[in-house]
Amino acid sequence: MAASVEQRAHELREQLVRHNYRYYVLDEPEVSDFEYDRLFDELRALEEEHPELATPESPTRRVGAAPSDRFQKVEHLSPMGSLDKVNTDEGLRKWADDVRKRLDSDEPVVYVTEPKIDGSAVSLVYEHGAFVRGATRGDGIRGEDVTTNLRTIRAILPRMVLPDGEAPPPVLEVRGEVYMPLSGFRELNERFVAEGKKTAPNPRNAAAGSLRQLNPAITAERPLSIWIHGMGHHEGLPANGHWEALEWLRARGFRTNPHAERHDSIESVARACVEWERRRIELDYEIDGLVIKVDSFEQQRRLGVLHDRPRWARAYKWAPMTAQTKLLRIHIRVGRTGNLNPWAQLEPVEVGGVTVSTATLHNEEDINRKDIREADTVIVQRAGDVIPQVVGPVLPHARGTKAFRMPEQCPLCGAGIVKPEGEVMHRCPNPKCESRGLETLIHWVQAAMDIEGVGEQFVRRLWRQGLVTSMPDLYRLTKEQLVALDGYGEILAAKAVEAIEESKARPFYRVLFGLNIPDVGWVTARNLARHFGSIDRLMAATQEEIQEVEGIGPERAEAIAKWFAEDDNVALVRELLDLGLTFEAGEAERPVEGPLTGSSYVITGTLERFSREEAAAALTAQGAKVSDSVSSKTTGLIVGEEPGASKLSKAQRAGVPLLTEDDLLKLLER
Ligand code: IVH
């Protein structure tokens, strides 16, 4: 064996021991889980190839680190193992084949999947039904006694809830994951910011840190919860498998995760692994994969354990959703409503399987609260709830950097930037600002009118040429003008002109949506169109009358009335009316009585099988109302890819159920 192999194995062991210590004892990991896993896998591959290298002390044999001496040490009643992981469909199937080979080839195997909670593992001991001791995992054999801290967590059962006449088991050890809900995590970090303290990098870290406080009063203030996912030591419980064990535990008051699923084939497990990667955003806690367990205890026993990792279980882990990269520049885009939207240009980096080179930065206040500066190394996150976000800088800042300031003048038209009292967004007040006009046009052709073959690039080009500066200009374009432009042949030009002409027949609500009235999304546009029936009635409406429309509060009503009071806007409407666009409600706006009458839905994010409009149309076709904003009256929030963070958190706070696209389909089929 080459000396270099031995050398490398030695290096890897030293690094892993160090990382274990930082992760488990100090709660201050230096590397991402992903990086850790990579080192771990490399060492394991080396040891498999050269078995003479493997030592019983190797970190591949022992996951975790010796407990710190801050707490009393306790020995677990049975060792707390860890899980081997797979991260591809292929790996999953290879494991299933191995399971098959080790069992009799034709006996059925049932699997249970459950979310892999990104928290801190604990063991809880119940004696005669009472919680007597709880410990962290430590090195799997001995952990830290954190009983007093665990007692402050309300989700931890102080005493088992036993069915009438049932005697409590003399000893029962349950295993679970203490975690911090995302909502609580955000609040905690806000509090840390307000108190000038260092924020927690992620919920798992926050949970582990909170659990290992020397003062239980501090733990008590932290929003911690627990999911119980199995048993350790127990004596003669009436369960034949994991699924029954979970049911048994649930029936006795333990908090088990409702998203555990039973599967009778590995194909079904594979589908769950794909489905939950998408659905993880529905949860108010972080999961980094699924845990897959062979259900039958008898089969589990026959499969056995290798080192401390059961052959009967695997963790299916997804690609990480965070990464580090360099923030190259902070740019400003002036949106179609005049808001100045800062965004980060990043050195391209892969986050959760997607290359990210830009991220939203929200507003000046947020940038400075997070202390993000140009040239910083930053952590980028693709949390389920947002388009890539910059979580924060990896300090220290590069030398000579300054806190971010919004420009005082609009970068496009030079108008003085304003920031209305009580608002967080800076705005360009100039209604004729080039960017606003251009962005409005892009919004018109793409989102509102959806004109085939006429997109952002087309509009930008015509804008630059001075051929189109407003919506009416678009309808006066001729084929000849287009042919005169480079790259437009007769056919293409004729098609574009025809598509533009056709768009005149788009329903009233889409025209309203396209007009770029402040805060009028397509749902509000539809509700306005339906309520008033025609542009004349809408233009004549007072603020109070507008407020009667579904989903419109006083502020929005005022903004809408104000918009229609401006001469330029009235002129624009008249011009479009003369050009023959639709300004009367028709079939598309008609309310329907149906099985969903009385219910009200909000849609957020991108759906796979429908556009949001189609989904809304399908819902309203069955009598449901579709609104733009979540309130306590919302029946359900339908969540697609990259949903809006505020809608999601509002729904969670208001206890509004979250629905997936599949749920929507079922709803529509009913
Ligand atoms: S079962 C033999 N189920 O993942 C270990 N573990 O890498 C059996 N975890 O230490 C563990 N969610 O802290 C199991 N639903 C779940 C889990 C889960 C998170 C953690 C646990 C364990 C680690 C294994």
Main sheet properties: 5 strands, mixed
Number of domains: 5
The small-molecule ligands in this entry are:
2-(butylsulfanyl)adenosine
Uncertain regions: pLDDT < 50 for 5+ in a row?
none
Looking at CATH, which topology of the largest domain would you report?
A: D-amino Acid Aminotransferase, Chain A, domain 1
CATH architecture of the largest domain: 2-Layer Sandwich
Helix count, DSSP H or I runs of 4 or more residues: 25
Distance between the termini: 66 Å
Looking at CATH, the homologous superfamily of the largest domain is DNA ligase/mRNA capping enzyme
Description:
- The protein is of the alpha+beta class and 670 residues long.
- 38% of the residues lie in helices and 19% in strands.
- It has 5 domains: 59 residues, Helix Hairpins, CATH 1.10.287.610; 233 residues, 2-Layer Sandwich (D-amino Acid Aminotransferase, Chain A, domain 1); 72 residues, OB fold (Dihydrolipoamide Acetyltransferase, E2P); 154 residues, 5' to 3' exonuclease, C-terminal subdomain (DNA polymerase, domain 1), CATH 1.10.150; 78 residues, Rossmann fold, CATH 3.40.50.
- The longest helix has 23 residues.
- The radius of gyration is 30 Å and the shape is elongated.
Structural topology:
Blueprint lengths: L2 H23 L7 H17 L23 E3 L9 E2 L2 H14 L8 E7 L2 E8 L2 E7 L5 E3 L2 H5 L19 E9 L2 H13 L8 H9 L4 H6 L3 E10 L7 H10 L9 E3 L2 H14 L7 E8 L2 H7 L1 E2 L2 E2 L2 E5 L4 E13 L5 E12 L2 E7 L3 H6 L7 E5 L7 E5 L40 H15 L7 H9 L6 H6 L2 H5 L6 H13 L5 H7 L7 H11 L2 H6 L2 H5 L6 H12 L1 H13 L20 E5 L7 H10 L3 E3 L8 E4 L5 H10 L3 E2 L1 H9 L1
Parallel strand pairs: 2-13, 19-20, 19-21, 21-22
Antiparallel strand pairs: 1-6, 3-9, 3-10, 4-5, 4-7, 7-8, 10-13, 11-12, 14-15, 14-17, 15-16, 17-18
Helix pairs in contact: 1-2, 12-13, 12-17, 17-18
The structure holds 2-(butylsulfanyl)adenosine.
